[in-house]
Specification:
59% of the residues lie in helices and 9% in strands. The chain is an alpha/beta fold. The chain crosses the membrane at residues 73-91, 111-130, 142-162, 188-207, 219-239, 259-286, 307-331, 337-361, 368-390, 396-414.
Length: 691
Amino acid sequence: MFFVVLKANDNGEGGTFALYSLICRYAKVNLLPNRQLADEHISSFKLKLPTPELERALNIKETLERKSFVKTLLLLLVLMGTSMIIGDGILTPAISVMSAVSGLRGQIPGFGTNALVIVSIVILVGLFSIQRFGTSKVGFTFAPALALWFFSLGTIGIYNLIKHDITVLRALNPAYIYFFFKKNTGKAWSALGGCVLCITGAEAMFADLGHFSVPSIQIAFTFVVFPCLLLAYMGQAAYLMRYPDSAERIFYDSIPDGFFWPVFVIATIAAVIASQAMISASFSCIKQAMALGCFPRLKIVHTSRKLMGQIYIPVINWFLMIMCVAVVAAFRSTTDIANAYGIAEVGVMIVSTTLVTLVMLLIWQTNLFLALCFPLVFGTLEIFYLSAVLTKIKEGGWLPLAFASIFLCVMYTWNYGSVLKYQSEVSEKISTDFLLELGSTLGTVRVPGIGLLYNELVQGIPSVFGQFLLDLPAIHTTIVFVCIKYVPIPVVPQEERFLFRRLGPKDYHIFRCVARYGYKDVRKEDHRAFEQLLVESLEKFLRREAQDLSLESNLEETEFDSISERSRDPGVLRGDRAGELRIPLMSEQRFEEAEISTSYEAVSALPSSVMSSDEDPSLEYELSALREAMDSGFTYLLGHGDVRAKKNSWFLKKLVINYFYAFLRKNCRGGAATMKVPHTNIMQVGMTYMV
């Protein structure tokens, strides 16, 4: 299972949301309807639609796209898995640190439960306090520390096997599983919950997959982690055969005399590293959820200039710290925390198995028998483990379910409200005919400058633009409707970032720009760098538009002269067709909502001999007008939207939208804070969206 799940990565990214984004690329299951055909042309999209021969894959794709309740069910499943991972971000530091510190109980006289709790809380507070510095500054110590840790586990295990009872190696025989259950029945079933703790951390490793390569994880797990853990557990079993009363603190009791303090120090460092990995995984999952519109916008700090995956989310960090401290102070024992930990682990595994099965059927197009064997074998085992850990609900198992429920409600409420708001914007967008009736002056005065109107629409004219025309005495000579959109891929190449389209006649100077980002992309550029990049891309768009029009005119003039020649040489026809595909403007004139990418490769695909800017005075005039507007400055036009449920809505919908979603919008980061734009360059108008 380990190797299969690692193979199901999204261009090297792991986690439940990475699997969800992978599925979103192959089937339109995202509830936010902002997908564009041009997104599939991004070089890292790598879309391979199911072939017509595989009817099963096509049927699955059609079912996912057609039935809204299936989309909602898939989203809820992903959100539940993500919520469980965030819950692990609370439980892992608590149980790891407490387990390491508990070794002092038998070593220092008078070191009781109160001392254990206090020392654990001090270490946890210190761990979360250094998160803002990032792991890159201390990350170089992780590899040698963990190598020393696993070497210690394996060596101590071999020592105990040889010294105490080498016959425990017979436990490798699967027949003893049957004998164990036959003899102990109910107690054996309950013991399965403890076995889950042997594989904890696998979900963090999958979520942190972007920091490593898949082969490196497979090699490390196969030849280092698994053998050392197996030797450690067998060594402890051999020790228990001679000293059965040491079960409560078997790890430290089985350490050879004279090696306690070195192993204690290494164990504490390993616990901190394991906690760090889980905290980083929580940050990564939340960032992915934010990018895909499933979590309120929060401040994200990038702690490394070289590694874009090194992030720090202050609000989440302090929330996790408070919850960790509360768990340690309330439970005061690793036993109850372990019961809670098991449910979270198995929950994430079941979600991952379900999503990987869907990937196998839809994307890999695996043989149906092999694809069904995966959930049948591993899913059955996970259900067995789940049934065992669910018996511990009253003994602490309720905790991860409570955490998961809270995060699930937050994420689904945000996604639900965002989808309704987007649908409201689509239904209320301004028609092009109304814009044409206003004329090139837009019914007001045009003043020099560039107005960047931020909205979420990828098509059409947003209704907030009409509000600006009503409230402002003048509007800028150049208007760009900017949409920041996240596409379901990890990274969008910089040269493929922007999509432009002209809205209205040339003398209106109105454009739409869709800035596309992947869920791992770093938006660290300041507003000046963004403005410069946007204007450069807009200039490329204008030049390409002029080249497209000139080429189209030349093609029309020579069309009838070349009919007979093309009929004799079908290869020429294919060349013309390919040329048309490289000229989106021609299809845009025939289809209202086509988009034009400003990538350099696409521009260079056109022959330079078609036309130069010197031969087109209108292009030169428009470029000079754009530069003049740029010199006059940029103004950010933002709509401060208030979302309210319609009066005839159900009570539950009013409660969710008017109170819960409104609370989240009020307390999350707004557009101005996200863009880091000076307040003097911002203009806002109020809008109310009835959903």
